[in-house]
Each structure stands twice: as structure tokens, then as C-alpha cells.
Design a protein that fits this description.
This protein has 9 helices and 16 strands. With 292 residues, the chain is α/β, with parallel strands linked by helices. It has a single domain, classed as Metallo-beta-lactamase, Chain A (4-Layer Sandwich).
């Protein structure tokens, strides 16, 4: 099957990734100065100064020392690495060991998030507990935006008032807006399906793992390993209300045609319309493999 050229923008965001289950995973949002997991280094990795790490498995955290070193070599200030609270001390020990081997200072900040982390530019981050073989968490990036009060919006829609009226209200000093919090991006890291929070399922963009897609591994075995199987999503797809869904972290046992074929056979077209696939270091919009 022939595939369209690799996608680098979804919604309002530029995105780059590399993800192969058990080998390495990193997802970069250059425009937001952040990435999820640090299992490898990509060309756009070095400038990223905020890294959200889902758990301590090496395919998700293994390149942290190299990232810190790259930034130091290029004269950049220290980056911040957000990890599950239970491994903050362990990661600090890991960095200390790297310093001993490298015989250099590796400056960084290792943090857990208790409640929320302000990211500037009207964004903030929260976590949600996921289900994996080790302590793990997903992340939601929220966006604050000022919107018209619901009652005024309704009157506008009913043509009871006009935009000119809204301008007059504003000039008169009336409070006509409210602050709205919307889930912009959610990232699951490694997890079972029931580890994805309701808020993540309603985010504008959801990046979710999809390790197993074939009948070579059962749903039960996938759960035991702390991963998602396509067949389980098949029975629960209607709980996902996202505008865009990026499935990634596929097992290397599956070819690209196999992945496309299994999704086509197991998920309805209405759902697949919003699906993108992060396979290796490429992002594809889902296409009907029968038509290729």
C-alpha cells in the first residue's frame, strides 16, 4: 500500500515523534516547548526545556542524560523533567551517576506534579494515574481561554442582541466574559485502556498507546503487560470524544499494512476519521487500506 506523506501538524500544533514499543518513545511539540517521554533524541529535542515523563522504563526515559548533555554543550539553561513522584529521587540518583561517568556537571530539574504546573501562555499541566507494570502517569495540557458568557452567547445566537451590543457592553465596563478551561492535549504513556481518564478521553488531541493489534496476543495478556489491545478499544471506542486521536507505541512485530488493516477491520469509519498513526518516526492520517 502507498502512504501519503508524513504529517507534521495536527490541529493547531506541530508534532514530531518516534515511537516503537519496547525500543523508544518521544513525542515533541516544538511550538509549546515540550515533549512527552525521552526514550530517544530527535533533531528538535535539544531545544525542548520541559519534558513530561510517564514512567521509568528505559524506552521512555533512557535518553534523559543525553538530552541534558546536549543542552549543556550548546550553552542552554537547564531543562525540567516531570516524572511520577515515586521516582523523583531515583531519577536524581541516575543523573548523579551520569555525571560521575561523564565527568561533567549535568544541570537539570527533576520534579513531580502535586496538583498542576503552570506552563505560561495560558497553558497548564495536570496528571492522571495510569495502569502499567511500574508506577506511571499520563498528562493533560489544559488551555485557559476567555469566552463570552453563555447567556450572552445564547442571545447572540437567537439574534436577540448583536455584536454591536456586545461592544457597547464592553465599553460600559460590563463583565461579559468567563474563563474557560479546555483539555487541549492528553498523553497516556504506557497503560491499559481503563487507565485513560475521562478528561483525557475528552481532550482535543489524545496521544494513546496501541501496543497490540493482532490475534497473536490476547486482550488478557495485553492487560497483564500493562498495555492496550485494539480489540479492547473496539468494544469501547464510543467513550472517546476527542477531535484527534494519535495512536502510537505499536509493537515492532506489526508491519504498517498490518496495522492499517486491523484498524480498518475493527473500528468504524466514523471513528477512524479522526485517527492518526505514529509508527516509527512517521505520522500518517488513517486511510482505508482497501482503496490503496
Amino acid at each position: 500500500m502507498e502512504l501519503r506523506e508524513t504529517i507534521t501538524r495536527i490541529g493547531d500544533h506541530e508534532i514530531h515523534l518516534r515511537s516503537i514499543a519496547g525500543i523508544n518513545t518521544t513525542i515533541i511539540f516544538p511550538g509549546m516547548g515540550m515533549m512527552f517521554d525521552i526514550g530517544t533524541i530527535l533533531p528538535k529535542s535539544t531545544k525542548i526545556k520541559r519534558v513530561f515523563i510517564s514512567h521509568g522504563h528505559m524506552d521512555h526515559i533512557g535518553a534523559i542524560g543525553l538530552h541534558i548533555s546536549h543542552r549543556a554543550l550548546t550553552g542552554m539553561d537547564r531543562a525540567t523533567y516531570i516524572v511520577p513522584g515515586s521516582i523523583v529521587g531515583k531519577v536524581e540518583t541516575l543523573i548523579h551517576s551520569f555525571q560521575g561517568v561523564d565527568e561533567s556537571e549535568l544541570r537539570c530539574q527533576i520534579l513531580g506534579i502535586d496538583d498542576r504546573m503552570d506552563m505560561g501562555n495560558s497553558y497548564y499541566a495536570t496528571t492522571f494515574k495510569t495502569n502499567h507494570r511500574v508506577d506511571s502517569q499520563g498528562y493533560i495540557i489544559w488551555k485557559n481561554k476567555t469566552v463570552l458568557k453563555p447567556e450572552l452567547k445564547e442571545k447572540l445566537q437567537q439574534q436577540l442582541i448583536t455584536q454591536k451590543d456586545i461592544q457597547e457592553y464592553r465599553k460600559a465596563g460590563m463583565d461579559i466574559t468567563v474563563l474557560e478551561h479546555g483539555a487541549e492535549i492528553a498523553y497516556t504513556g504506557d497503560t491499559t485502556l481503563d487507565g485513560i481518564s475521562a478528561e483525557a478521553k475528552n481532550a482535543k488531541i489524545l496521544i494513546m498507546e496501541m501496543t497490540f493489534v493482532g490475534d497473536d496476543v490476547s486482550i488478557e495478556k495485553a492487560r497483564e503487560r500493562g498495555h492496550i489491545h485494539l480489540y479492547e478499544l473496539r468494544d469501547n471506542f464510543d467513550t472517546f470524544k476527542n477531535q484527534y486521536i494519535i495512536m502510537t507505541h505499536f509493537s515492532p512485530r506489526y508491519s504498517i499494512p498490518k496495522i492499517f488493516s486491523e484498524l480498518y477491520k475493527n473500528l468504524p469509519p466514523s471513528f477512524l476519521e479522526k485517527v492518526y498513526l505514529g509508527i516509527g518516526d512517521r505520522i500518517f492520517k488513517f486511510e482505508n487500506p482497501v482503496l490503496q
